[in-house]
Amino acid sequence: MGGSTGGGLSFNLSTLENSAKQKLSEAASPSATHVFISFSAEDMNEVNLLRGQAKNEKSDIAFDDYSVKKAYNSEDADYIKRQIREKIDKASVTVVYLSPHAAKSQWVNWEIAESIKRGKGVVGVYNGNTAPATFPSAFSDNGCKAVPWKHDDINRAIAETKAKR
Questions:
Q1: For the domain with range 31-164, which CATH number is right: 3.50.30.30, 2.60.40.3930, 3.40.50.1820, 3.40.50.450?
Q2: Degrees to nearest 5, angle at CA 106 with 99 and 93
């Protein structure tokens, strides 16, 4: 095996070192909040707009999106949950895009419950001036805060939620 000993250990240390450097770099960003966005697939266009606004240099929204960008190619619910848990664990706050679709989504409800179980703050965001008539049950049952899709409101709610944790 190449005549050197400990090659496997060297590879593992290198991988671990690179992973640690990446996490430190991400954590070093003082203005950004690490966010997991929970939403129904039917709301993808609106969520992509929110993501785009957060990346716009002229936007007051400051967060790093750790959410699922495309659906996992699997029918295995346990596999999907493991992948989503990893994303939630990297975030400090979960932002839920509130819509009639989200209120009915079992996945959105699970992501909210899992975020709370893992000690993450949860903030709901809705488009327009009036909140949807119904929320996902895990959102309502845990007294999560809902705010309109306005930069100041979103940032304030995220900061308040992080401060409580």
A1: 3.40.50.450
A2: 65
In b/e form, how buried is each residue of 100-126, taking b as 16+ CB within 10 angstroms?
Answer: ebbbebebbbbbbbbbbeeebbbbbbb
Say what the pTM is: 0.74
d(CA 96, CA 139): 9
Q: How many helices (H) and strands (E) does the chain have?
A: 7, 5
Read off the pLDDT of residues 92-129 as tens digits, 9 standing for 90 and up: 899 999 999 999 999 999 999 999 999 999 999 999 88
Contacts of 104 (CB under 8 A, 6+ apart): 40
Q: Locate the domains of the chain by residue range.
A: 1-30, 31-164
